[in-house]
Write a structure and sequence with these properties.
This protein is 41% helix and 12% strand. The chain is globular and about 60 Å long. The chain has 18 helices and twelve strands. By secondary structure, it is an alpha/beta fold. The strands form three sheets. Strands 8-7-6-2-12 form a five-stranded parallel beta sheet, with helices on both faces. A four-stranded mixed beta sheet has the order 1-11-10-9, with helices on one face. Helix 3 packs across helix 18 (434-444), helix 12 (284-300) packs parallel to helix 14 (322-335) and helix 14 packs parallel to helix 15 (361-368). It has two domains: 71-84 and 176-460, TIM Barrel (Alpha-Beta Barrel), CATH 3.20.20; 85-148, no CATH class.
């Protein structure tokens, strides 16, 4: 077992044992500043290692062993992507949404004009039908599950796994945000069933004044002399609104879990914290405004332990504005030094973008933005001066979340294509539960960090 740092704030954000790992693991140090082994060589550890060895070659028994094994933190978890499609369908039925049969996406009927609502498919059938039809038509139900997940997906001409994955989020975006507490409860139940101790969920709050804040944003080419005073009132309003939404989410999920009652759910004992998401594919003014709110929120509310940038890193706007985004993070860190930063960086691979784009995303995230954790980091060995960058990350204890499933499905990077001698990689759910990611790391034996003995796991999603 391992013990977290004494500082609760640092422990929440940097909690790490095996799977969301630091490049520092490559250094001579065998212990990070937060976690050290306290039972090394003990009889319990030896017995557990022997038990693992006994089932390693038996996939069914291995999965059972891993399911029951205690685990640490579940990191890099996008809440909207961690909810199963079946739950989204149920919520859509409750919300009286419609299904667009051309895209197998949910649509709010209030957003359809009368003319649009009468659209027909080529065979003359209505284009929009009630979501409830999914419960009486198994083929339709299966098509929705496949549309919202990677289940049964096979790449074809013009439709890559990468595109299908990222397109899925918009397809269920019409589901009402009132269900968010249910989503947290669902993910927490899955975590409790697998002996997890801590959940860190990425979530984007609804900000009614985000557009107004973006309009207030002036030219961002001289951040060193940027005037922040005009934002004060608007930012405080946005922070209060986000905190109210978090209150509602937490109240909902605690009621569902019966927290405080004699028969409370095991989920009540799981520590749950949130990472504020900034959509990097939006106009730079909107990115700045939402990042500003995120830094202010993470500084004001202990439930929000940091910020992260999301959306495809290879998108046109994300690539074009990447360096500016890192400058923005650096600038806001100066105003909100208590806020932690984790960044998706290096979620790129040869062929996905021009070779020149592989030069320096991780470096900018670490050296310019001051990221404390890096999400994916797949292209590390393609970056300029990667050896020096690795040494700096090791020295600064910059942790890297390597996600086996999403890297495989989105980037086509798996097994030995990961830089395993430099990153102790770990597991990541797409549609599968957390345990199956550890199972994947062990059963494939392609990872240099596939454990030879049981330990408390953390994972990155």
């Amino acid at each position: 077992m391992h013990k977290p740092c004494s500082s609760r704030g640092a422990a929440y954000f940097r909690l790490l044992i095996v799977s969301a790992v630091s490049f520092a693991a490559l250094s001579a140090s065998s212990c990070s500043d937060c976690l050290c082994s306290s039972e090394s060589g003990g009889r319990g550890e030896q017995a557990a290692s022997e038990a693992l060895d006994a089932v390693r070659s038996d996939p069914i028994r291995l999965r059972s062993f891993l399911f029951r094994m205690p685990k640490g933190a579940d990191l890099h978890n996008h809440l909207s992507g961690a909810v199963y499609a079946e739950s989204l369908i149920r919520a859509a039925v409750e919300d009286s949404l419609m299904i667009d049969l051309r895209s197998y996406a949910f649509v709010d009927p209030k957003q359809l004009t009368q003319e649009k609502a009468r659209d027909k498919l080529p065979d003359g059938q209505p284009r929009y039908i009630p979501a409830a039809k999914g419960y009486t038509d198994q083929g339709l139900f299966d098509a929705l599950v496949n549309s919202f997940s990677m289940r049964s997906f096979v790449p074809s001409a013009g439709i890559s796994s990468h595109d299908h994955f990222f397109d899925a989020f918009a397809k269920f975006g019409a589901v009402d945000r009132k269900h968010t507490g249910e989503w947290v409860d669902e993910v927490a139940k899955r975590a409790a069933a697998q002996n997890e101790q801590y959940l860190e969920l990425m979530q984007t709050p609804k900000l009614s004044n985000a557009e107004d804040l973006a309009k207030q944003t002036k030219a961002l080419d001289d951040l060193d002399h940027y005037d922040m005073k005009p934002f004060q009132v608007g930012v405080q309003k946005a922070v209060s609104e986000a905190q109210k939404e978090l209150d509602e989410i937490e109240t909902s999920r605690r009621l569902l879990a019966r927290c405080g009652a004699p028969d409370e759910s095991a989920t009540c004992k799981i520590e749950i914290r949130y990472i504020y998401q900034v959509p990097r594919g939006k106009p730079k003014e909107e990115v700045f405004a939402k990042a500003l709110v995120g830094f202010a929120l993470a500084s004001a509310d202990p439930r929000v332990v940091g910020i992260n940038f999301v959306m495809p890193e290879d998108g046109h706007t994300a690539l074009t504005d990447y360096e500016l985004h890192m400058h923005i993070v650096k600038f806001l860190r100066g105003h909100y030094p208590k806020a932690h930063v984790a960044l998706h960086a290096g979620e790129l691979a040869p062929g996905l973008v021009p070779g020149e784009e592989l030069c320096c995303h991780i470096q900018l995230a670490v050296e310019e933005a001051g990221a404390e954790r890096i999400g994916h980091g797949v292209d590390i060995m393609y970056e300029k001066n990667h050896d020096e960058l690795l040494k700096k990350m090791a020295a600064d204890h910059v942790m890297v979340e390597i996600n086996l499933s999403s890297n495989d499905l989105i980037l086509g990077v798996s097994g030995k294509d990961h830089p395993p001698r430099y990153i102790a990689d770990s597991a990541c759910p797409s549609r599968s539960p957390r345990t199956m990611k550890e199972f994947r790391a062990l059963i494939s034996r392609t990872s240099t960090c596939a454990p030879s003995k049981p330990t408390v796991f953390n994972t990155a999603i």
